[in-house]
Amino acid sequence: MKFIPHDYQQYAIDFIENHETAAVLLDMGLGKTAITLTALNDLLFDSFEISRALVIAPLRVARYTWPQEIAKWEHLKDIRYSVAVGTEKERLAALATPANLYIINRENVAWLVEKTDFTYDTIVIDELSSFKNWNSKRFKSLMKVRPLAKRAIGLTGTPSGNGLMDLFAEFKVLDMGKRLGRYITRYREAYFMPDKRNGQVVFSYIPQPGAEEQIYEKISDITISMKAADHLPMPKLIESEYTVQMDKAEREIYDEMCEQMTIQGEEVTAANAGVLSGKLCQMANGAVYTDGGGVLRIHDRKLDALEDIIESMNGKPLLVAYWFKHDAERIEKRFPAVRLDSDDTISRWNKGEIPVALIHPASAGHGLNLQSGGSTLVWFGITWSLELYQQTVARLYRQGQTAKTVVVQHIVTQGTIDRRILAALKQKDKTQAALIEAVKAEVRK
Predict the structure, then answer these.
(1) Residue 28, pLDDT score
(2) pLDDT in tens, 45-79
(3) Which DSSP state fits 371?
(4) Is residue 403 classed as helix, strand or coil in its secondary structure?
(5) What's the rounded Cα separation, in Å, for the pair 48 and 54?
(6) 253-304, pLDDT tens digit by residue?
(7) Distance CA 155, CA 240 (A)
(8) Distance of alpha carbon 93 from alpha carbon 115, whole angstroms
C-alpha cells in the first residue's frame, strides 16, 4: 500500500528526523508506528544517519504491530527487521540475524543489556510511559546503555498518566537528564511539595505553583503532541453512567470492610490501605476474594445492570472491560461472553461474530484495533490507571471507526469507591490534558 502522509504525519516525521532526541506524544489512532517507521526509513536509506535501530515495545505490539506496519507500506520494503521475543534461544537467534531494525518487548530490556552487546545507534521506546518508574529494573538497565545510542525516540499518547512525577524518568531515558535533571530528589525539590505525610514520611507530592508551566517549558524543545480530534474525522464520544444501588444488608458488609478492614465471620481482611482499595473495588463489583483464594459473593447489582445494557443493544456487539478475574467468570456464567485473549477471538470480534466480548485493560490496552467489531464499551470494573483506561477506550474510539458515535458507559455502584476512581481519573486527565496542550504542535495547514 502506498503511504501518503497527512500534514500532521509529515510534520511528525520531519520532527523526528530533525531532532536526535524526540518525545512524540501522539493521540491514539494517529499512526505513530507508520510515522516513526517512515522517519527511520529516511534516516537509514536517505540521509544515512543511522544503521541499526532498536524498538522497545509491549509484547503484543512488538510481535505483531511493528512487523505488520512494515509489511503494509510499500515505501518500507527495504527495512530488514528481526523480532526478538520468545525464549532466550529464539531471542538470541533473532538478534544474530542481519537487520536494520531489531524489535524487543520491554520485559526483556534488562536481559538485552546484561546478556548481549549493545550496538544500536537509535532507540525507539513505544509506549514511553512504560519507563515512568525511575527505580525499575528496565529503566536502570536502559540508562546504562543510553549514552551509546545517538538517537532516542519516545512514543506515547499518555505521558503523565499518574501526574507530573512520571515525566522525570520518561524524559531522563530520552535526554539523560538534560532537561528535568539527573536525580529524582532534585526534581521533586524543584517542582513539588509534600502532600500526604506522617511525620517525616511523605506519601505523596503535589506540584508547586507554576511548576507545570516550568516543566512543560523545559521539555518543549524536544516534544510535540497531537490530539486525534484535531486532525482526524473522529466519531462523537458519549460517556455515561449506569448507577446501581446495594440494599441495606449489602451496604453493611461494604461499610464494615471500610471501617474494620475485615468482614466479620468471613476470611476477608485488608492489611493496609492499598489492599483495602482493591477489596472495596471488588465489593463494588459484586464479589471479593477471600484470604484463602475463594470468592465471596456480595451482590449481583452490576450483573443485573449489564443484562439491561445487553438487552438494550438488540444484538449489536458490546465490549465489556473487567478488572478482576472473578468478575469475568461471573459475567461468563451469566452471559454468552467471550474473552478477547487470542488472535482468533480478536478476529472474530472484528468480523462481528461475538455479541458480548470481554477485555482486560492490562493485557489488551495497547496495540489492538477493535473498532471494526463495535462502538460501545461498558466498564464493569473501573481501573485506577488513566493510561490503561484511555488506551482501552481507544480500541474503539479511533481512526477507522465507522459508527458516528462511540458510547462508553460506566456501571457505578452508588456510595462506593467507584465514584472516587472516576473522580481520580478526571483529575489525572486534567494534568495530562495540560501537558498535551502545553507542547501541542501547531501544524501548518
Answers:
(1) 67
(2) 999 999 999 999 988 788 888 998 999 899 999 99
(3) T
(4) coil
(5) 16
(6) 998 888 877 776 566 666 677 788 888 999 999 999 988 889 999 999 999 9
(7) 30
(8) 13
Is 369's pLDDT higher than 50? yes
Asked if 167 and 19 touch (Cβ cutoff 8 Å), the reply is: no
Grid coordinates in use for 253?
458488609
Residue closest to 43 by CA, chosen among 3, 95, 8, 79: 79
Cell numbers for 67 = 512487523
* Residue 341 to residue 354: CA distance in whole angstroms: 13
What residues does 357 pair with on adjacent strands? 319, 338
Report d(CA 286, CA 296) in Å as an integer.
9
Nearest to 412 by CA among 268, 246, 238: 246
Closest CA to 27 of 376, 398, 352: 398
pLDDT of residue 445: 40
Q: Phi and psi of 198, rounded to 5°?
A: -135, 95
The dihedral of CA 5, 8, 12, 14: what is its sign?
positive
Question: Cell 468471613 identifies what position?
Answer: 266
Q: Is the dihedral of CA 215, 216, 220, 225 positive or negative?
A: positive
**Model pTM score:** 0.74
